[in-house]
């Protein structure tokens, strides 16, 4: 589908989507077989499961975007999937950009009551901010099943143990779920992003 022969324009980056292991195994070798593109990249979104990138030679990958799914039928992205992907890119020197959590995002298990806060107001606030579902790290193998939290947000035991790998989530909407991963903004760019059309550093 490339409509030209010979050298590619400097601003023609080639990026492929790898939302899960199956697509990574299929598409990354095809991407790495391409020659001539000034930058090869991975769009790891919507991230729908753990992906092992160590089975590929990422030395030619210049950038990776990571993010969750948006929309009315969005599947949640477990935060560990994003942490794991970004850690792998860091180990191999690939600049990574965490774009968003998507429609679903992390939430707290309990919401502390403020001093002097009337009980009805506290209950309403807790219901709007606490986690509504539990999400397992291997939920992608179970049709992305979300387990509703049964206890009201204002009556949960803050010391309640959760199963290992369980994430607390709620349907915030893309804007409220935000783009911070564990409170961090991850917005790395490849060196090519700082080049002017003449090829000089901006």
Write up this protein.
The protein is built from four helices and ten strands, in the order βαββαββαβββαββ. The protein has two domains: 1-105 and 175-202, no CATH class; 108-171, no CATH class. The chain starts with 13 loop residues before the first strand and ends in a 17-residue tail after the last strand. β9 (180-181) and β10 form a beta hairpin. The protein is α/β, with parallel strands linked by helices.
- Distance from first to last alpha carbon: 31 Å
| Topology pattern, helix = H, strand = E | EHEEHEEHEEEHEE
User: Which whole number gives the mean pLDDT?
Assistant: 93
Number of helices: 4
Alpha-carbon Rg, integer: 20 Å
- Please indicate the percent range of residues in DSSP E strands (runs of 2 or more): 15-25%
Domains, number:
2
Helix fraction by DSSP (H/I, runs of at least 4): 10-25%
Question: Sheet bearing the most strands, described?
Answer: 4 strands, parallel
Q: Which overall shape is indicated by the principal axes computed on the Cα atoms?
A: elongated
Low-confidence parts: none
**How are strands sequenced across the largest beta sheet?**
1-2-3-4
Extended strand count: 10
- What structural category characterises the helix and strand content? alpha/beta
């Amino acid at each position: 589908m490339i409509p030209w022969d010979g050298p590619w324009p400097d601003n023609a980056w080639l990026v492929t989507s790898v939302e899960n292991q199956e697509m990574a195994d299929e598409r990354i070798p095809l991407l790495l077989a391409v020659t001539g593109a000034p930058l090869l990249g991975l769009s790891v979104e919507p991230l729908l499961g753990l992906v092992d990138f160590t089975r590929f030679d990422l030395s030619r990958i210049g950038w990776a975007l990571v993010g969750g799914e948006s929309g009315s039928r969005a599947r949640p992205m477990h935060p560990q999937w994003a942490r794991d992907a970004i850690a792998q890119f860091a180990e191999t020197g690939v600049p990574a950009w965490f774009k968003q959590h998507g429609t679903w995002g992390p939430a707290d298990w309990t919401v502390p009551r403020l001093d002097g806060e009337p009980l009805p107001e506290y209950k309403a606030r807790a219901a709007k901010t606490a986690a509504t579902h539990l999400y397992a790290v291997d939920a992608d193998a179970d049709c992305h099943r979300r387990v509703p939290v049964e206890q009201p947000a204002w009556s949960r035991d803050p010391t309640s143990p959760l199963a290992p790998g369980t994430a607390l989530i709620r349907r915030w909407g893309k804007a409220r779920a935000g783009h911070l991963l564990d409170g961090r903004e991850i917005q790395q760019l490849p060196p090519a992003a700082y080049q002017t059309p003449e090829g000089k550093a901006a």
